[in-house]
Design a protein that fits this description.
Helix content: 55-70%
Bound molecules: adenosine-5'-diphosphate
Strand content: 5-15%
């Protein structure tokens, strides 16, 4: 199963991806996680991406496209993968279609978690509180200012990605405002499980 999960920051893509990983036995490919790992390791990509990410903006398309292109070739992706946080621009969506076609594969499903924007800032604040309470480090971009920039980037650059897949008849929408288990059930149903 090759799956794309779409939705704004704080929509619950990470939570739902983790459940799908368990159920389907395929890896979650989060460009955000991969970029944070590159930042932590101080690789050339990490050095380039850090300031952009901290401000809540999108890193250049060619960087994330290159990362995903290579990652999909790893053996653990042979049975499929869940893309979380990619594609985030229409250019990335087009590049994804092309690079998959070159590998002789395609997507099985594109699922969007639809959430009320007003809830997102509250969710982000809660995530920060819980992270601090657990004694873990808070992400540099989990502050109200960067979060607003991330929402803005979502509205301007990523919302058109939903429209791109909808136009092709490939988009399935799930209500992300439901309780976590109900969102999981709705995704399962959408995927025909
Ligand atoms: P969230 O889903 O909470 O917005 P992510 O962990 O997916 O955050 O991404 C964090 C940051 O990493 C983004 O704000 C952006 O700077 C960068 N990033 C992740 N994925 C992409 C992508 N596909 N294209 C461009 N930038 C990305």
């Amino acid at each position: 199963m090759r799956l794309v999960l779409l939705g704004p920051p704080g929509a619950g893509k990470g939570t739902q991806s983790a459940r799908l990983v368990e159920k389907l036995g395929i890896p979650q490919l989060s460009t955000g996680d991969m970029l944070r790992a590159a930042v932590a390791a101080g690789t050339p990509i990490g050095l380039k991406a850090k300031a952009i990410m901290d401000a809540g903006q999108l890193v250049p398309d060619e960087i994330v496209i290159g990362i995903i292109d290579q990652r999909i070739d790893e053996p653990d992706c042979a049975k499929g993968f869940i893309l979380d946080g990619f594609p985030r621009t229409v250019a990335q969506a087009e590049a994804l279609r092309e690079l998959l076609a070159k590998k002789g594969i395609g997507l099985d499903a594109v699922v969007e978690l639809v959430v009320d924007e007003n809830a997102l800032v509250d969710r982000m604040r809660k995530r920060v509180e819980e992270t601090l309470a657990a004694g873990k480090p808070v992400r540099a971009d989990d502050n109200p200012e960067s979060f607003r920039t991330r929402l803005d980037a979502y509205r301007k650059q990523t919302a058109p990605v939903s429209a791109y897949y909808a136009e092709k008849g490939e988009l399935k929408k799930v209500d992300g405002m439901l309780p976590i288990d109900e969102v999981t059930a709705a995704i399962d149903k959408t995927l025909g499980h």
